[in-house]
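During the practical work, I selected for study one protein's amino acid sequence and its backbone structure tokens, as given directly below:
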Amino acid sequence: MPLLDLKGVTKDYHLGKTVVHALRGLDLDINKGEIVAIMGPSGSGKSTLMHILGCVDTPTSGEASIEGTQIKSLTERQLVALRGRKIGFVFQTFNLMQTLSAQQNVELPMIFQGIKRKERAQRAVELLTKVGLADRVHHRPNELSGGERQRVAIARALANDPEILLADEPTGNLDSESGETILNLLKKLSEEDGKTVIIVTHDPDATAIAARTVRLHDGRVVEEARNA
């Protein structure tokens, strides 16, 4: 059974009297431990697909399931709990709290899961060490480079040991060297820790680490390519 399975998924948005068909009968399955790059031009439905894969939104029609559970069957509270346990998000703009240290930023998701302070602190330091930032634990975001901030964001995404990492343009604000470091880190997390990594991107370099590249156009999958 696929970890994530979408069948005939549509998503419509109503803007006044206008209906925007963001997804149009999209089929996609993603297996546990797989790295998938999702690409396509602006307006192709990438962001909408990301929201559904991340259980942030539900389809207008069709079926979208995670581990066999239909996300449309879950209440908002259940969706929040599911995201907190199973999905880690990484964003192009990092979304770090500027007044908090790297360690405190990584601890935030654990606070919402009720993890005690000592355990939070220990795990945050372990995760920052894992992403190569053992010497930046007490630095704030404005004291870090873009690549370092993105590594803090990845450590934060790993805080609750999710099965899925959903990365939205993770290299979009980085220079090529920092971008390569981030992609290699995501690849390592899949290969060594078994994380399922979904990268929504315009960066062709992301396809180099992906097992599969999915291309969207006008809300549909128009191409799927397995990478050598």
Q: What stands out?
A: The helical segments are 46-53, 76-86, 102-112, 117-130, 146-157, 176-193. The mean pLDDT is 95.
